[in-house]
Amino acid sequence: MSGPDFPPGVDPSAGGYPAPPSADPPPETGGPPPSLDALPAPHEERYADALPNAGNVPAFASLVLGAGGVLLCFLVIVFRPDSAAVVLAIPVAGVLAVVFGGVGLSRSKARGGAGRDMAMGGCLLGIVTVFAAFPVFFVDAVSNWSGGGL
Fold it and tell me: What is the model's pTM?
């Protein structure tokens, strides 16, 4: 009673497919398994050259801090927050961007130029952020002194 929807040799009234054929036992190897001491550690060969090619983290941090400082300057001028901590964070971000940019430049020299452009961009944005902090302080001070009517 095998119908068109069932493979040959399958009886749907019996409840399904027959049992799978038994698997052969694994062959005998004739000796003990290899020692783990004889095998190389997986990280020794696979990741041998990964460390010298790693990214320049201070250069990236400099770029992020510099861009964040410029963005924060823009946001403080547009939205004029009441918190002095936001206004004080601008020069801190700029100074940190310049410091991390300098560290990133020195590391890029040691690594053959890896991350030099990010470090230079971060230094430049950090300097722009520090100089842009003065007008932001002025706008914030005048806005707070005159009662927010600037």
Answer: 0.60
